[in-house]
Amino acid sequence: MDTEPDDEPTIEFKDIEAQQRSKELGITQQQTMDLRPWQLPTCNFFWRQDAIEDVLAAGPKAVGAGGEFQCATLAKKLLEAGLSLYEPDPERALNDPDYRHQIKDRVRRIKSANKNKLTDQTIEFVMKLAPYPIMREEAECAEFRMLLRQYMSPDLAACEEVMLDLWEEHREAEEREMELHRKRNSIR
User: Fold this and answer.
1) Could you tell me the CA-to-CA distances from 127 to 16, 64, 132 in Å, in that order?
2) Phi, psi of 107 (to 5 degrees)
3) Mean pLDDT of the chain
4) Is 25 left (phi over 0), alpha (psi -120 to 50) or beta?
5) What 3-state class would DSSP assign to 87?
C-alpha cells in the first residue's frame, strides 16, 4: 500500500530545535505540564495532525476523550503559533514573547548551520523523530547514515525520503515473512 508523501507531516527545523532544547534543558512536556497518566503530550499528535480537528469536534465529553481533548486543544494552539508539537514547555512558549523570540532565533541558527548539509547532531534528532520504531534500532540507524552519505548535501527532504524508503523496505520484508508463515501453517 503506497502512501503519498503529502499525507505525512514534514519534520521541520522547529521540531529538531524543540527536541534539542528538551535534551539540553533535561525537561519534557510530562514534567513542565505535570501530566497525569491519562493526559497526553502534544507530540502524540505529530504523526496524526489531521486527528486534532476530529478530537476537538468530538468535544471533551466524548468517551475517553478527556486527556486527548486537552492535548488537541494545546496542539492546535502550538501549531497556530508556529511552534513545534515537541515544544518542551508549551505554556511558556505560548505566553512568553521573549522566550518565543529565543526559540525562533535558535531555529534560524539551525537552518543557517544546515543550509548546505545536515550536521551529525541534526541527523540524530531527525532519527529520533522518525515515525517508525524500526528506524531507531541500531542496525537501521547505521543504514540510514550510510544512505544519507550517498547524497552530496543531504537535507531534511533527503532524510524524509530515505526514512520512507527504509520503512517501505521493512514493511515489504515483513509482508514476505508473514506470507511464508501463512504458507507453512496452511501445509500443516
Assistant:
1) 10, 31, 9
2) -60, -45
3) 78
4) alpha
5) coil
Give the model confidence (pLDDT) of 54-85 as tens digits: 888 888 776 565 678 888 999 999 999 999 99
- Residue-by-residue DSSP string for 90-134: HHHHHH-HHHHHHHHHHHHHHHHHTSSS--HHHHHHHHHH-SSGG
pLDDT single digits (tens) 146-157: 666 655 455 666
Supply the pTM of this predicted model.
Answer: 0.64
Q: Is the dihedral of CA 87, 89, 94, 97 positive or negative?
A: negative
Distance (Å, rounded) from C-alpha 137 to C-alpha 115? Answer: 28
Give the CA dihedral 32, 35, 84, 80, nearest 10 degrees. -110
- List the beta strands (DSSP E) in 125-182: none
38 versus 149: the higher-pLDDT residue is 38
